[in-house]
Automatic annotation (TrEMBL):
GO molecular function, one term: enoyl-CoA hydratase activity
Organism of this sequence: Saccharothrix carnea
Family: Belongs to the enoyl-CoA hydratase/isomerase family.
Designated name of the protein: enoyl-CoA hydratase
PANTHER family referenced in this protein's UniProt entry, alphabetically: ENOYL-COA HYDRATASE, MITOCHONDRIAL, ENOYL-COA HYDRATASE-RELATED
UniProtKB keywords: Lyase
EC nos: 4.2.1.17
Top-rank EC class of the record's enzyme: lyase
Catalytic activity: a (3S)-3-hydroxyacyl-CoA = a (2E)-enoyl-CoA + H2O; a 4-saturated-(3S)-3-hydroxyacyl-CoA = a (3E)-enoyl-CoA + H2O
Record's keyword annotation contains Lyase: yes
Protein's GO biological process: fatty acid beta-oxidation
Length: 269
């Protein structure tokens, strides 16, 4: 696929994916979602990078939301298909075996906020704003916001944010756990994200993939079910060359030389 709404930059094992519709404030059109679907599916089908950064083209918004002009004329069946595509993309963000970091600079509303929620963690600039304002348009979150937001901030806070549609500034987003850290500007944020992914890249890729799968699979389950997912991942780690290398390196007091790479998740829901 020739991407017309995404910019892909691969550097030092980190792939930066930029949603680029600056005139539409990077809104999620059907085309954007299809291109994200294609790109993320390609990671699952091949060798994964050591990390992915998801961001938006410079401007007032990270991703302002789903494309309202497209949605305004959709039939219920078309709306359902649009929602399914958005949900598929957010599931793919969770399922790719490498860490995905959202770097938010500006508005992350509606579908934009839902993309953030599906990433492993997020950074933001001070001017960033978050929210699920779908009810203001007579809609509800359709790309996973009703599910993931409550898991991140708790059911009561999620209900208040979704029912009111109110916006959350960057400091409150940190307090609620929507983002990990806030930065003064876009360049500083991206530099830190690359540095963090570089640090992660020094660890075992197979172990990071297993840990990601276990964390995602155990979210929202009972403790017993979550422990079962974790034990599956723990056992799977013992089958990898990276585990043998990592433990041998520790005992020999040397740096490990990890080789484990994976194109598909090692665990599934």
């Amino acid at each position: 696929m020739d991407y017309s709404t995404l910019l892909i930059d691969e550097r030092d094992g980190v792939t930066t994916v930029t949603v680029s519709r600056p005139r539409a404030r990077n809104a999620l059109s059907g085309r954007v979602l299809a291109e994200l679907d294609h790109f993320l599916s390609g990671i699952l089908a091949g060798r994964a990078p050591r990390g992915v950064i998801l961001t938006g083209a410079p401007g007032p918004a990270f991703i302002a939301g789903a494309d309202i002009r497209e949605m305004a004329v959709m039939t219920p069946d078309e709306g359902e298909r649009f929602g399914l595509l958005g949900q598929r993309v957010t599931r793919l963000l969770e399922e790719v075996p490498c860490p995905v970091v959202a770097c938010v600079d500006g508005y992350a509303l509606g579908g934009g906020c839902e993309m953030v929620l599906a990433c492993d963690f997020a950074y933001a600039t001070r001017r960033s704003v978050f929210g699920q304002p779908e009810v203001v348009l007579g809609l509800v979150p359709g790309f996973g916001g009703c599910v993931r937001l409550q898991r991140l901030v708790g059911p009561a806070v999620a209900r208040e944010l979704i029912y009111t549609g109110r916006h959350v500034d960057a400091p409150e987003a940190v307090r609620l756990g929507l983002v990990n850290a806030v930065f003064d500007d876009r360049d500083e944020m991206l530099a830190v994200a690359r540095a963090v992914l570089g640090r992660i890249a020094g660890n075992s890729a197979s172990a990071v993939s297993l840990a990601k799968a276990a964390v995602n699979a155990s979210g929202g389950t009972t403790v017993a079910a979550g422990l079962a997912f974790e034990l599956d991942a723990f056992r799977e780690a013992f089958t990898t060359d990276d585990m043998r290398e990592g433990t041998a390196a520790f005992l020999a007091k040397r740096r490990p030389a990890f080789t484990g790479v994976t194109g598909e998740p090692l665990l599934h829901d």
